[in-house]
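Hi Prof. W.,

I finally got the HRSL1 enzyme prediction working! I wasn't sure whether to trim anything, so I left the full sequence exactly as given:
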Amino acid sequence: MASGKQNPQPGDLIEINRGVYQHWALYMGDGYVIHLTAEDEGIPRPSAGSVAILTRKAKVKKQLLKDVVGSNNWQVNNKYDSFRTPLPVKEIIERAESYVDTERTYRLFYSNCEHFVTMLRYGEEISEQVS
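And this is what came out:
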């Protein structure tokens, strides 16, 4: 597994460094995360001039953190906790589980993987990387 904090807690936000952008997941416990799998659904990774990624469909998947991370670096990053109150962990996990294997609209600037996991943790979609 790539480097990262080795003891995330259920409900933590996981930031995965993909080079030109950050991929986000929500830690569920027992080594699993929930994340929006835009690439699996034919959405290419963001690159300069890539307009095709602005609006597509993506799937919500529950997968092992080590499989999602691959060789990339990762860390727990609950950076919004300083100005947002996380929902109770049980509620975060229940909300996340309800989305597994569902399809969602993916919009790079308005409904991306960070928006999705912050909605689960805080009840509000937030993404600094597109602000």
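The domain at 12-42+53-122 is CATH 3.90.1720.10 (endopeptidase fold (from Nostoc punctiforme)). Does that look reasonable to you?

Thanks,
D.
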